[in-house]
Amino acid sequence: MPNRRHLCWSGDDPIQGRWLLAHGEGVAAHQHARGQLLYATSGLLATTTERGTWVAPADRISWTPPRFEHGHRAYGETELSILEVPAELCPALPSAPTVFAVSALLRAAVLKLTGGATLPPDVGDRLLRVLVDELTELPEQSMYLPEPADDRLRAVTDLLRANPAESATLGELGRTVGASERTLSRLFRGELGMSFSQWRSQLRIQHALVHLGQGRSVTDTALRCGWANPTSFIETFAAILGQTPGSYQAAHQRNA
């Protein structure tokens, strides 16, 4: 069974194993001497850095490199399997936080390594190397929302974060913060690497994952997050996550 505690991770804290986080429970900014893999079997885990936020719904695995400052927050009761990755294996994995899809082999390896049974060191080492090799073959599924540095851009994204369902156009938001639509559009592309529409869709999808995890219907979630109708929400959700909101919610309920 997973442990339940308020996690305060830093440095070389012995945290490998299974943990259960309550809804809304957070872990303040910290860093690790080793790399870290976190597999959520239920709930949703957000990893936040100065660069932005990565979201891992249930049945995804989050990667955080060594010495990369980050914090976490759980949405819904979130059961985590946590693995520490020694420095010599880390170069095979990305140099920034990433979220991966999970294969059957990867899931089995994570659960074996974090199940509490004492494994011979050579067996554990071999299994961990297999796990890292498997990750290098899996597609990234990063629900990543980059964080702006420009004050004008940050003012716009703060307005959207406060109300993801906000329907104002970029031009209307620009007039509110004192910047032209053309300038803001250029900043979204140049600084965040995506359009205004793409950034807002990513933000809304992150909020939608929380609502779906809490049991809200697809229609209610779509309207709460700013989509004009469920069809457009379903299309956007499937394009970003590779599954419909209904199938995601069904899998989430099975895991729970």
From TrEMBL:
Pfam families to which the protein is assigned, alphabetical: HTH_18
SMART domains from the UniProt entry: HTH_ARAC
Keyword flag Transcription: yes
Domain HTH araC/xylS-type: 154-251
UniProt cross-references to SUPFAM superfamilies, sorted A to Z: Homeodomain-like, RmlC-like cupins
Ranges in a coiled coil: none
PANTHER family, alphabetized: HTH-TYPE TRANSCRIPTIONAL REGULATOR NIMR
Protein name (Swiss-Prot/TrEMBL): AraC family transcriptional regulator
